Amino acid sequence: MDYKLTPSFGRRKARKLRDQSQRAYTDLLPLVKIDHPKKPFETDFPEVWLEIGFGGGEHMLTQLAQNHSIAMIGCEPFMNGVAKFLTHLSPEDYHRVKIWHEDVRYLLDEIPSPYFQRAFILFPDPWPKQRHHRRRLITKEFMEKLWPTLSEGALLHIASDDASYVEHIQDVLYSYPNLILCEGPPSADPLTWSPHPKGWPETRYEQKALASGKKCAYMIFQKKENLS
Prior knowledge:
This protein is 29% helix and 19% strand. It has helices at 19-32, 58-66, 79-88, 104-110, 140-146, 163-173, 204-211, and strands spanning 48-52, 71-75, 97-100, 116-122, 150-160, 179-183, 217-223. The chain has a 7-stranded mixed β-sheet, with helices on one face.
């Protein structure tokens, strides 16, 4: 990390952690934190999935429970979210979970390419104010870092409840070279957004958005081979 990026996230910490959360953060994070980005896991797994900005970890925990053979790397700079995830992580899964507690773009610079068979970016901060748009994570520059780390045929899952950000994502990804749109709305108009897909675990943020009457856009892309 010999250079500094414009953060795509806000706070690193909110309220003081409760005793249980603080113990989990202090005792468990060293067991699952990535120390060597070039070889995150000591053993090999059939597939390694990536979740960027996992919040409290609800989605990641569900994926681990439903897919027993895969390993997952979760990226989350927010201390409270990491602590919450660790309090619910089963000891049986310690060996197949790694956490990157910094900006994901630094990890993507170091991880072997290709490495991931699936990636999730669920409800990233939309930075709705015009002056903050430069802090949005999903950009062409970000894709230049993520793209090489995805295996051929890898799936990229993205979700957002912000129409402005959905439009931005569509501008960046709908025409991105060698990226197939498998599922996604035709426009940024929420009236064109489909209901929650079956088999797509909800995040806590998503549940709040739906409960408040918002609609959510769900997109799945697949990496295809570059034949050029």
